[in-house]
Design brief:
homodimer, about 350 residues, Enolase-like, domain 1, five-stranded antiparallel beta sheet, three-stranded antiparallel beta sheet, 13 helices, 10 strands, about 20% strand, DNA-binding
DNA sequence: TTTTAGCACTCAAAGAGGTAGAGTGCTAAC
DNA sequence: GTTAGCACTCTACCTCTTTGAGTGCTAAAA
């Protein structure tokens, strides 16, 4: 069904979508003709509308109402019409100043970016922490904290720091610890996280056992913790601007509001939501989302990449009736900023 | 106005509150008489109700409706009636198992506890990260990360770890760094955070300048970062179970829902909310909350104290029509658990 | 003096028309 | 192919009425 769409139809469709995004109301032929000065009449528009509806781009809530765009309509809009009008968001200065106040720290950057993005687009923003797997370990250190407690610190080449307290059964002498540190550093520093597989660890374990003489459990334990910290699947999710959803007229009825807010309350759900997308920039419109509760929502997600390797995602959740041009460019920009911020704080 | 309240009035008030907590509807004399078998009639109840209303414990939405408890009524209930029926929450086992899976890390414990509490009471839970000021520094370390980047690590006696990346203008040699580490450790280790005041820092600065020969800016910078990490006022807030609010019938109208959800979206607001309370266990009912948007809500907050010093807060936000006995004991228990968890992971 | 039954009264919530207005689809003329 | 005209449709909103739970008051009973 590769029906050609006339330029006039395109014009009408675009106008309807823009108008609907603005007003959140069904758009009628008369209103449309009044607001946009087309060189054809409401009656013609009606005909075009009927065609567009048949093609699946528009829907009619009931017989005597105007039309609203369908998911397919938005999809067409995003794919074909948006590009020319991607605008750089205005005056980042204000946001950036606020951000730089809170200085370094991945956590601060992440939450700051989520906040900035949500303020910018006036929808809910979501940012996922960068995954480790593609970055290199630049440093790994075990610090003694107390008699049977060590602090494991892993720093990646992209400048991310991760630490974890490790509880040991048995005390380690200073010398033992030094040896341990030396071997671990030698073996792990400079290595890409994704190459630390079972076989490699097996090998490492052998070496440790051979060269040091502690109980095997300690080594096992350490290994466990190291892999834990490295492939922690459970990347943290930063959410901000939840309350913007409340401003959207389509969520004025409690039922749909509940649905979407419940999703936002479940970290795992969100994680799956953004992790599932792999492309550089993806737009999921309405029912294109697998999640049943998100069928009235759209999701715009971009991937950010850190210099030293490691990627994460940043996105926006809003109603299908979303200001796509603005959102897409803002999400894009934010992804870029995140890379820059972390890389610069990591130089 | 220290009017004595008869035991019968107390009985009626208690019944009304319990019934209202259960049903969320205004309670009438007839219903009350039917459900609770008092040895007096609806008419008598009506008289008592009229009295209780005059005393300020009850309110009437309109002339021909039943009564609902006022803030004062709940206050009385909480202060006088609750104690005898504080019950230990059932079967923590399930929650605890889930918690211990995620092992160590303050962050995990905090968010895990918030989650557990909210699941337990079926209201929104809030946990604030432990403040540093009353704990001692047990270790402070500067690790080189790259040529002009240091990782500052501070470990407190309660086992909390905090790190921050510091950007320097100028390179430090290994030796300089070692000296720096030595001096800082000597001066700061074992010291209570709250005693690190301006005067002390002045003194430290002098020493550093005298004994080392780097540019003053570096020293200033370091100092800045250290104080930053130590008294970071901006303690993190963990929130969980936001969506439970949606289940409450009193928030079935969009307006009040918006109000409260907007508050929950603002970290600073929440911080102030829990930080403002200093008592061991505090219950703020309705208008007792300063925040205008929280006047339909109650807040139950407890303080937890870590072994090595350092305190934080844990609480529950729900409608004034809250199951106080259950909530109070759960919050209390959670505070206790947090101390235990962090202390045990910090031994 | 306290408690209770009886009864008239009140008020919100829910349902039943009725109207207005925006919008459509169809037809016939341009 | 485009447009004006018109009958038709449907929701949103108003008003009116009914219903029922609940009250307060009064007078009788305990």
């Amino acid at each position: 069904m590769v029906e050609e769409i006339s330029t006039r139809k395109e014009k009408v469709l675009k106008a309807i979508i823009q108008e609907h995004i603005l007003t959140a109301e069904p758009v009628g032929s008369r209103t449309l003709a009044r607001k946009y000065d087309f060189d054809f009449s409401p009656a013609t528009i009606r005909n075009e509308m009927a065609d567009l509806e048949e093609m699946g781009f528009l829907e009619q809530p009931h017989t005597s109402a105007g039309r609203i765009p369908s998911d397919l309509g938005y999809r067409f809009y995003v794919d074909r019409l948006v590009e020319e009008e991607l605008e750089k968001p205005v005056s980042l200065k204000h946001y950036l100043k606020e951000l730089s106040r809170q200085k370094s720290g991945v956590e601060d950057i992440m939450s700051g970016m989520a906040r900035m993005l949500s303020r910018m687009v006036q929808y809910t923003a979501i940012v996922s922490e960068p995954g480790f797997s593609e970055s290199k370990i630049s440093r790994l250190e075990l610090l003694p904290v107390s008699s049977r407690k060590l602090l494991l610190i892993v720093i990646t080449s992209s400048g991310l720091v991760n630490d974890k307290i490790i509880q040991l059964e048995k005390k380690l002498t200073e010398e033992e610890l030094e040896n341990l540190n030396r071997i671990l550093s030698r073996r792990l520093a400079g290595r890409k996280v994704s190459t630390i597989t079972g076989a490699f660890l097996q090998d490492l374990e052998e070496e440790l056992k051979r060269r040091l003489n502690y109980a095997a459990e300690i080594i096992k334990r350490l290994e466990q913790e190291i892999t834990d910290i490295l492939d922690k699947q459970e990347m943290k999710i930063y959410l901000d601007g939840t309350s913007y959803i409340l401003e959207q007229p389509e969520f004025n009825d409690i039922q749909s509001l509940k649905k979407i807010l419940k999703v936002l309350d479940r970290q795992e759900e969100l994680r799956r939501l953004v992790a599932g997308l792999e492309d550089e920039l993806e737009v999921k419109i309405g029912a294109e989302n697998k999640l049943q509760e998100m069928q009235n929502c759209s999701l715009v997600v971009a991937t950010y990449r850190l210099e030293g390797g490691g990627t994460g995602r940043v996105g926006v959740i809003g109603p299908t009736r979303m200001e796509y041009p603005r959102v897409i460019s803002s999400v894009d920009l934010t992804a870029e900023l995140i890379s820059k911020f972390i890389s610069s704080s990591g130089r």
